[in-house]
Amino acid sequence: MTVLTYHKIADEVNFERQIQYLCKHYKPVLVNQNLSDSKANLLITVDDGDTSFYYKAFPVLKKYNISAILFVVTNLVNTQKPFWWDELQYYLGKEEGNKKVWEVKGWTNKKRESYLKNLREKSSKPILKYEQLTTAQLREMQDAGIIIANHSHTHPMFDQCTPEELEVELSNSTKILKDFGFSPEIFAYPNGNSSVQSEAMLKKYGINKAYLFDHKINKTPPHPHRISRLIVNDNTPMWKFKLILSGWHTRILPFTRFAGKLTGRLKK
Ligand SMILES: [Zn+2]
What we know:
The chain is an alpha/beta fold. It has helices spanning 12-25, 51-63, 84-92, 94-104, 109-122, 135-143, 163-180, 196-204, 238-246, 248-252, 259-266; strands at 2-6, 42-48, 68-72, 146-150, 183-188, 209-211, 230-231. The model has no long low-confidence stretch (mean pLDDT 93).
């Protein structure tokens, strides 16, 4: 099973072109089809639960009867809270903020949280607001065959969290998704950052499927808590989209000079 990961969807026309290509050359998991159905060989996943999924991708998927997993950040649902990486750009400017995102991802969770708190308090700018998905929108999508799944409670880097912080993340996100009637047992690591400790914690919270963000194709049936995914965007040109799906992009990437930069830019 080849698994694709999208984030924000900027252009529904490009996205539809990619979906048409996938329908022609692959067998995407369809609405109401089991994730491990042997008749399917491609799964679409979307991280973070940005509203652009609801407005731009969902209508296209519905048109082609294709399912997808939407991984949501539970403390953002039903709020106007921004994603934390967007806050860094807002307070520091686009270029500086973008650089900072990479630095912050390597910090302990505590340091990341206190740095963001400090930025908000010290800035003269008003608090950044961002439209997030509502429970009603998530329910509408679930009813149409989209799986609403777990992308943690606040999107920290799981390899930078203490056991206590992991407990807080997973107890909150699993409870909220369960209460809403969604799928807490399907999880995607924020930014793909995993660790032995966090994998044990996922099992403790009844998570039976966890997706990575490693830009790889699953050649053999994967470990259920280490499922590989390929990274794409709706604006990925068709030649590159095909190259990524073929698995060749993954193979040649380590040899390209800008490999780190390329994958880095795509990660969130
Ligand atoms: Zn994410």
